[in-house]
Specification:
The structure is a single chain. With 276 residues, the protein is of the alpha/beta class. Helices cover 33% and strands 17% of the residues. The strands form 2 sheets. The chain has a 6-stranded mixed sheet with strand order 1-2-3-4-5-6. Helix 4 (178-194) packs antiparallel against helix 5 and helix 6 (240-247) crosses helix 7 (256-272). It starts with 17 loop residues before the first strand and ends with a helix.
């Protein structure tokens, strides 16, 4: 067993849910799976002395979970005034409409189809609900509509599925694109250098206390996988399933369908550069 402290990003031990920083509190959704790890992290974010809060990714359409998020915010002395989505995958966004009914809060997202209200989200936007400062950081790649949220006061970034608390994420081809994803990882790394971001508050898995270490690991992992896929193609493995069977032979086969999405994204990336 590997010591958690030695893993890239230094994952926090103990329960996934609960307080993570002075302004961010996690409520874990009851939807664990090989793809969602322990479940979806729903984040309640607010200034400590504010009466209102922002919720990021209400999660699946599970009424008990959604009501638990509302109740948790109330125990913290907050009323949910705004809901934000990191992206549109059901484990993050399916419950948004019902959550809006429970809270009366608008839902803001990059994808207009996911919004409830007139306002969307885009690069350069700053959320200021209840005196909070959340900066919108476009991070496409896992999906085209993926966003992260920079929380400067806590030197933290909420990454959705762009960076996970354990393992690595899927580039969900064809919506997700590897070139975009690599650019997004570099943008997040710049936050660790230029803005002092030290913590990753992910969409799944534990909080990471070494944001730069985690992102460097992701970049190295992607470079390694890309080299393996290119080598597999040169060895005669032409289709995505063939490449998966060769490159991911030591990975649980239940994860191969997800791996195939990333492989297709990598094959597209190589093809665009004349390498496959």
């Amino acid at each position: 067993m590997t010591d958690a402290a030695a893993l890239p990003g230094q994952p926090r031990g103990g329960p996934i849910g609960g307080p993570a920083t002075a302004r961010a509190h996690c409520v874990l959704a009851p939807n664990p799976s090989p793809m969602t790890l322990d479940g979806t992290n729903t984040w309640i974010v607010a200034e400590p002395d504010a009466e209102v809060a922002v919720v990021i990714d209400p999660g699946p359409l599970d009424d008990a979970h959604l009501r638990n998020v509302v109740a948790t915010a109330e125990r913290l002395g907050k009323r949910v005034a705004l809901t934000l989505l990191t992206h549109g995958h059901p484990d993050h966004a399916e419950g948004a409409a019902r959550f809006a009914e429970l809270t009366g809060s608008p839902v803001r997202a990059l994808d207009p189809a996911l919004r409830l209200g007139e306002e969307g989200l885009g690069a350069g936007d700053v959320i200021t609900t209840g005196g909070l400062e959340l900066r919108v950081v476009p991070t496409p790649g896992h999906t085209a509509d993926s966003l992260s949220f920079h929380l400067p006061a806590d030197a933290a970034v909420l990454t959705g599925d762009t960076v996970l608390g354990r393992g690595t994420t899927v580039v969900a081809h064809p919506d997700g694109r590897l070139g975009d994803y690599l650019d997004s990882l570099r943008a997040l790394r710049s936050l660790t250098v230029d803005d002092g971001v030290g913590h990753v508050l992910p969409g799944h898995g534990p909080v990471l206390a070494d944001a730069q270490g985690a992102i460097d690991h992701y970049l190295a992992h992607r470079a390694q996988r890309l080299a393996q896929v290119e080598a597999a193609v040169r060895a005669g493995h032409r289709t995505a399933p063939e490449v998966v069977a060769h490159v991911y032979a030591d990975v649980d086969r239940t994860l191969w369908p997800a791996a195939e999405l990333s492989v297709r994204a990598q094959l597209d990336y190589l093809a665009q550069r004349g390498a496959a």
